[in-house]
Amino acid sequence: MAVFEDLLEGGATPVALGVGAIVLAPTLLPVIGRIIRPIAKGAIKTGMAIYQETYAAVAEATGDLVAEARAELESEAREGTSKAAPPHHRPAGATS
Length: 96
Known about the structure:
The protein has about 100 residues and is an all-alpha fold.
């Protein structure tokens, strides 16, 4: 009972605020949502724009490197298949 008496004496303010918040929540949340929605949407759009710009810059920088590496690999593969195997390179089990 002491807890109940303490709430009535001076601690009732937080309880009253909690009850008031519960009662007003269905009314206030849609209003708050309408206010915050454009702000959140703007932040998301800004983030998406920054991502697209960054992705394009990285793709351009790495795209050139990837193209160069691919060209070198293809060139090395062509050179490797056109050269004859060195004389000391015999398949296993081959006799001369």
